[in-house]
Each structure stands twice: as C-alpha cells, then as structure tokens.
C-alpha cells in the first residue's frame, strides 16, 4: 500500500470514529479505548492519525457501537459535496435518458439561470422541511 492510500485510510477512519463519538455523545476516549479492548491511547491515536487502523480494530469499534463494517465504511453522500459524490448520486438514481435530459439542460441554459433555479429550489425545499417539522 502506498503512503497516499494509507493516509487516506487514516483520515477516513479518524473522521468516521469522530462521527461515531459525536453521534453517541462519547467524550472519554480513554474509557472507550478500554471498552473496545485496547490501551488507553488507542482511540486518540486513531483520531490523530498516529496509528494505522487494522480491520480487526475497526471491527471491535463497530461491535461496541452496534454497527457492521459495511455501516462503518458506507459513505454518506448527503454530507459529501464533491464532484465524484454528485456523479455517483446521479448514476445511482437516474436512468441514462434522464441524465441525457439533465445534460441538455445544463449545456444549453446559462450558468446564472441554473444557479437561480437551484437556489430557488433550495429555499422551497428548506421551507417545506420547516413546515413538516412544525407539524410534528
């Protein structure tokens, strides 16, 4: 494995473990390290990218949080706004003929009009979401 790949994995694991800590309101890294069966600096070392993660250690973390390895490594594209994630979202959710229509729109309408349209939709979507939350 090359150095760039290892750094990417360390960064991904650190980010994912941090998300799990935040979601579960866990602040004591030393205690968590012991609970998953490792020395007291294990979680801190993962978060600081000082330690190379192994599948078995990630599995132990998953066991503690009650998730699978698949859940751990699943990328949530709703948080990731990169071009690659947008492309994956489009390919996963739309048929080729629908993508062709979208391409035609994007290639024939000026950028300012597209930005205005998308901004309007965002405002509409956010207001609709607020209305639904008020009903609950």
TrEMBL record:
Residue ranges of every copy of the HTH cro/C1-type domain listed in the record: 17-74
A Pfam family: HTH_26
MF annotations from Gene Ontology: DNA binding
Segment forming the signal sequence: none
Listed InterPro entries: Cro/C1-type_HTH, Lambda_DNA-bd_dom_sf
The protein, known as: HTH cro/C1-type domain-containing protein
Protein source organism: Christensenella minuta
């Amino acid at each position: 494995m090359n150095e760039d790949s290892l750094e990417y994995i360390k960064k991904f694991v650190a980010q994912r473990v941090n998300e799990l800590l935040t979601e579960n309101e866990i602040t004591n890294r030393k205690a968590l390290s012991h609970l998953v069966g490792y020395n007291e600096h294990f979680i801190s070392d993962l978060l600081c990218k000082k330690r190379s993660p192994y599948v078995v250690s990630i599995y132990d973390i998953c066991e503690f949080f009650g998730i699978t390895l698949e859940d751990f490594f699943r990328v949530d594209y709703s948080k990731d706004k990169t071009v690659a994630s947008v492309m994956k979202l489009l390919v996963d959710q739309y048929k080729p003929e629908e993508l062709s229509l979208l391409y035609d729109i994007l290639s024939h309408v000026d950028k300012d009009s597209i930005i205005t349209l998308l901004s309007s939709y965002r405002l509409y979507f956010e207001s609709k979401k607020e209305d639904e939350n008020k009903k609950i």
